[in-house]
Amino acid sequence: MRRPIIAGNWKLNKTIPEAIDLVARLKRSLYDVTDTDIVVCPSFTAIAEVAETLSESTIAVGGQDLYWEASGAFTGEVSGAQLKDAGCSYVIIGHSERRQFFGETDATVNKKIKAALAAGLTPIVCVGELLQERESGKTEEVIRVQVQGSLANLTEDEMSGIVIAYEPVWAIGTGKVATPQQAQDVHKFIRGLLEKMFGKAVASQVRIQYGGSVKPSNVKELMAAPDIDGALVGGASLDADQFIQLVKYK
To answer: Residue ranges of the chain with pLDDT lower than 50?
Structure first.
Protein backbone atom coordinates (compact mmCIF):
# COMPACT_ATOMS: atom_id res chain seq x y z
CA MET A 1 0.00 0.00 0.00
CA ARG A 2 1.50 3.30 -1.07
CA ARG A 3 1.52 6.04 1.56
CA PRO A 4 -0.41 9.17 0.43
CA ILE A 5 1.55 12.38 -0.04
CA ILE A 6 -0.07 15.83 -0.06
CA ALA A 7 2.26 18.69 -1.04
CA GLY A 8 1.52 22.40 -1.16
CA ASN A 9 3.28 24.46 -3.83
CA TRP A 10 3.07 28.06 -2.69
CA LYS A 11 4.65 29.43 -5.88
CA LEU A 12 5.50 33.15 -5.69
CA ASN A 13 3.42 33.92 -2.62
CA LYS A 14 3.82 34.75 1.09
CA THR A 15 6.25 36.99 2.92
CA ILE A 16 8.26 35.41 5.73
CA PRO A 17 5.80 36.50 8.48
CA GLU A 18 2.84 35.24 6.39
CA ALA A 19 4.62 31.95 5.77
CA ILE A 20 5.36 31.46 9.47
CA ASP A 21 1.75 32.21 10.37
CA LEU A 22 0.44 29.70 7.83
CA VAL A 23 2.67 26.81 8.86
CA ALA A 24 2.13 27.50 12.55
CA ARG A 25 -1.59 26.94 11.95
CA LEU A 26 -0.88 23.78 9.96
CA LYS A 27 1.38 22.47 12.70
CA ARG A 28 -1.33 22.97 15.33
CA SER A 29 -4.07 21.37 13.24
CA LEU A 30 -2.27 18.48 11.55
CA TYR A 31 -0.21 17.13 14.46
CA ASP A 32 -2.42 14.03 14.66
CA VAL A 33 -2.16 13.04 10.96
CA THR A 34 0.13 10.02 10.91
CA ASP A 35 -0.98 8.17 7.76
CA THR A 36 -0.09 10.81 5.15
CA ASP A 37 3.14 12.56 4.18
CA ILE A 38 2.61 16.33 4.27
CA VAL A 39 4.93 18.76 2.47
CA VAL A 40 4.93 22.53 2.09
CA CYS A 41 7.04 24.26 -0.58
CA PRO A 42 7.49 27.98 0.17
CA SER A 43 9.52 30.54 -1.74
CA PHE A 44 13.27 30.28 -1.21
CA THR A 45 13.32 33.31 1.10
CA ALA A 46 11.00 31.67 3.64
CA ILE A 47 12.35 28.11 3.65
CA ALA A 48 14.61 28.38 6.69
CA GLU A 49 12.00 30.10 8.86
CA VAL A 50 9.28 27.69 7.75
CA ALA A 51 11.51 24.71 8.50
CA GLU A 52 12.33 26.10 11.94
CA THR A 53 8.64 26.69 12.70
CA LEU A 54 7.82 23.13 11.63
CA SER A 55 10.54 21.51 13.72
CA GLU A 56 9.18 18.70 15.89
CA SER A 57 6.25 18.29 13.53
CA THR A 58 5.47 15.69 10.87
CA ILE A 59 5.26 18.32 8.11
CA ALA A 60 8.20 18.33 5.71
CA VAL A 61 9.55 21.26 3.70
CA GLY A 62 10.42 21.35 0.00
CA GLY A 63 11.95 23.74 -2.49
CA GLN A 64 10.20 24.76 -5.70
CA ASP A 65 13.26 24.27 -7.93
CA LEU A 66 17.02 23.79 -7.78
CA TYR A 67 20.05 24.06 -10.05
CA TRP A 68 21.98 20.99 -11.16
CA GLU A 69 25.42 22.30 -10.19
CA ALA A 70 26.49 22.10 -6.55
CA SER A 71 28.18 25.52 -6.53
CA GLY A 72 29.82 28.09 -8.77
CA ALA A 73 29.23 31.23 -10.81
CA PHE A 74 25.50 30.77 -11.38
CA THR A 75 23.90 34.01 -10.23
CA GLY A 76 20.38 33.62 -8.86
CA GLU A 77 20.43 29.83 -8.62
CA VAL A 78 20.05 27.56 -5.57
CA SER A 79 21.74 24.19 -5.12
CA GLY A 80 20.42 20.99 -3.61
CA ALA A 81 22.91 21.26 -0.76
CA GLN A 82 21.67 24.78 0.02
CA LEU A 83 18.05 23.58 0.08
CA LYS A 84 19.03 20.72 2.37
CA ASP A 85 20.95 23.12 4.61
CA ALA A 86 17.90 25.42 4.85
CA GLY A 87 15.71 22.54 6.03
CA CYS A 88 14.28 20.94 2.87
CA SER A 89 13.78 17.24 2.35
CA TYR A 90 11.83 17.53 -0.95
CA VAL A 91 12.11 19.61 -4.12
CA ILE A 92 9.69 20.15 -7.00
CA ILE A 93 11.34 19.65 -10.40
CA GLY A 94 9.97 20.39 -13.87
CA HIS A 95 6.76 22.16 -12.86
CA SER A 96 4.84 23.26 -15.94
CA GLU A 97 5.43 26.91 -15.06
CA ARG A 98 9.18 26.26 -15.05
CA ARG A 99 8.81 24.58 -18.44
CA GLN A 100 6.53 27.29 -19.84
CA PHE A 101 8.19 30.46 -18.55
CA PHE A 102 11.80 29.52 -17.82
CA GLY A 103 12.83 27.12 -20.55
CA GLU A 104 12.87 23.91 -18.51
CA THR A 105 13.30 20.81 -20.67
CA ASP A 106 13.25 17.08 -20.03
CA ALA A 107 17.06 17.15 -20.24
CA THR A 108 17.42 19.83 -17.55
CA VAL A 109 14.80 18.08 -15.41
CA ASN A 110 16.91 14.94 -15.64
CA LYS A 111 20.03 16.78 -14.49
CA LYS A 112 18.13 18.41 -11.64
CA ILE A 113 16.74 15.05 -10.48
CA LYS A 114 20.27 13.65 -10.25
CA ALA A 115 21.44 16.73 -8.35
CA ALA A 116 18.51 16.46 -5.92
CA LEU A 117 19.20 12.80 -5.25
CA ALA A 118 22.89 13.52 -4.73
CA ALA A 119 21.93 16.13 -2.12
CA GLY A 120 19.63 13.70 -0.29
CA LEU A 121 16.41 15.39 -1.42
CA THR A 122 13.26 13.61 -2.63
CA PRO A 123 12.35 14.95 -6.09
CA ILE A 124 8.71 15.62 -6.98
CA VAL A 125 8.94 15.37 -10.77
CA CYS A 126 6.14 17.04 -12.73
CA VAL A 127 4.76 15.98 -16.10
CA GLY A 128 1.64 17.07 -17.96
CA GLU A 129 0.07 18.05 -21.27
CA LEU A 130 -1.26 21.33 -22.63
CA LEU A 131 -4.96 21.78 -23.48
CA GLN A 132 -4.37 21.61 -27.22
CA GLU A 133 -2.33 18.44 -26.76
CA ARG A 134 -5.17 16.76 -24.88
CA GLU A 135 -7.79 17.97 -27.38
CA SER A 136 -5.73 16.60 -30.28
CA GLY A 137 -5.35 13.19 -28.61
CA LYS A 138 -1.65 13.56 -27.85
CA THR A 139 -1.78 13.19 -24.05
CA GLU A 140 -0.09 9.79 -23.89
CA GLU A 141 2.54 10.76 -26.46
CA VAL A 142 3.44 13.91 -24.51
CA ILE A 143 3.54 12.10 -21.17
CA ARG A 144 5.67 9.29 -22.61
CA VAL A 145 8.27 11.72 -23.94
CA GLN A 146 8.39 13.67 -20.68
CA VAL A 147 8.62 10.58 -18.44
CA GLN A 148 11.25 8.83 -20.55
CA GLY A 149 13.32 12.00 -20.98
CA SER A 150 13.07 13.22 -17.41
CA LEU A 151 13.87 9.83 -15.85
CA ALA A 152 16.55 8.73 -18.33
CA ASN A 153 19.55 6.80 -16.99
CA LEU A 154 18.26 6.52 -13.43
CA THR A 155 18.75 3.29 -11.50
CA GLU A 156 15.92 1.32 -9.94
CA ASP A 157 17.11 2.41 -6.50
CA GLU A 158 17.12 6.07 -7.54
CA MET A 159 13.65 5.79 -9.08
CA SER A 160 12.22 4.23 -5.94
CA GLY A 161 13.01 7.47 -4.08
CA ILE A 162 11.19 9.75 -6.53
CA VAL A 163 7.62 11.09 -6.51
CA ILE A 164 5.87 11.80 -9.83
CA ALA A 165 3.25 14.55 -10.14
CA TYR A 166 0.86 14.45 -13.07
CA GLU A 167 -0.38 17.98 -13.64
CA PRO A 168 -2.46 18.62 -16.76
CA VAL A 169 -1.39 22.15 -17.64
CA TRP A 170 -4.94 23.06 -18.67
CA ALA A 171 -6.12 22.40 -15.10
CA ILE A 172 -3.53 24.47 -13.22
CA GLY A 173 -4.98 27.62 -11.71
CA THR A 174 -7.89 27.54 -14.14
CA GLY A 175 -10.55 26.07 -11.87
CA LYS A 176 -10.82 23.20 -14.34
CA VAL A 177 -9.95 19.78 -13.02
CA ALA A 178 -9.44 16.46 -14.71
CA THR A 179 -12.22 14.06 -13.82
CA PRO A 180 -11.13 11.25 -11.50
CA GLN A 181 -11.30 8.89 -14.48
CA GLN A 182 -9.21 11.17 -16.72
CA ALA A 183 -6.62 11.51 -13.97
CA GLN A 184 -6.64 7.80 -13.19
CA ASP A 185 -6.17 6.91 -16.86
CA VAL A 186 -3.00 9.01 -17.09
CA HIS A 187 -1.69 7.83 -13.70
CA LYS A 188 -2.17 4.22 -14.81
CA PHE A 189 -0.37 5.02 -18.08
CA ILE A 190 2.55 6.59 -16.16
CA ARG A 191 2.80 3.55 -13.89
CA GLY A 192 2.89 1.35 -16.99
CA LEU A 193 5.78 3.41 -18.39
CA LEU A 194 7.63 3.10 -15.09
CA GLU A 195 7.14 -0.67 -15.17
CA LYS A 196 8.70 -0.87 -18.64
CA MET A 197 11.61 1.35 -17.57
CA PHE A 198 12.30 0.13 -14.04
CA GLY A 199 10.36 -3.10 -13.47
CA LYS A 200 7.12 -3.96 -11.78
CA ALA A 201 8.41 -3.79 -8.21
CA VAL A 202 9.61 -0.20 -8.57
CA ALA A 203 6.55 0.90 -10.56
CA SER A 204 4.20 -0.48 -7.92
CA GLN A 205 5.85 1.50 -5.12
CA VAL A 206 6.41 4.89 -6.82
CA ARG A 207 3.87 7.45 -5.66
CA ILE A 208 2.10 9.49 -8.34
CA GLN A 209 0.36 12.69 -7.29
CA TYR A 210 -2.32 14.57 -9.18
CA GLY A 211 -1.97 18.33 -9.51
CA GLY A 212 -4.40 20.78 -11.07
CA SER A 213 -7.04 22.77 -9.16
CA VAL A 214 -7.21 20.26 -6.31
CA LYS A 215 -9.64 21.48 -3.64
CA PRO A 216 -11.35 20.07 -0.53
CA SER A 217 -14.44 19.52 -2.70
CA ASN A 218 -12.74 17.15 -5.16
CA VAL A 219 -9.77 15.63 -3.34
CA LYS A 220 -11.60 12.63 -1.85
CA GLU A 221 -12.95 11.48 -5.21
CA LEU A 222 -9.54 11.91 -6.86
CA MET A 223 -7.75 10.05 -4.07
CA ALA A 224 -10.15 7.14 -4.37
CA ALA A 225 -8.67 6.25 -7.78
CA PRO A 226 -6.33 3.25 -7.52
CA ASP A 227 -3.25 4.89 -9.08
CA ILE A 228 -3.59 8.35 -7.51
CA ASP A 229 -1.40 8.49 -4.41
CA GLY A 230 -1.58 12.14 -3.47
CA ALA A 231 -1.99 15.72 -4.57
CA LEU A 232 0.30 18.57 -5.55
CA VAL A 233 -1.79 21.53 -4.45
CA GLY A 234 -1.41 25.11 -5.66
CA GLY A 235 -3.88 27.83 -4.68
CA ALA A 236 -5.64 25.83 -1.97
CA SER A 237 -2.32 25.34 -0.14
CA LEU A 238 -2.13 29.10 0.53
CA ASP A 239 -5.20 28.92 2.77
CA ALA A 240 -4.66 27.07 6.04
CA ASP A 241 -8.27 25.93 6.39
CA GLN A 242 -8.42 24.56 2.85
CA PHE A 243 -5.09 22.77 3.10
CA ILE A 244 -6.04 21.23 6.43
CA GLN A 245 -9.27 19.93 4.89
CA LEU A 246 -7.31 18.53 1.94
CA VAL A 247 -4.89 16.65 4.17
CA LYS A 248 -7.77 15.32 6.28
CA TYR A 249 -9.76 14.21 3.23
CA LYS A 250 -10.50 10.73 4.58
So the answer is: none
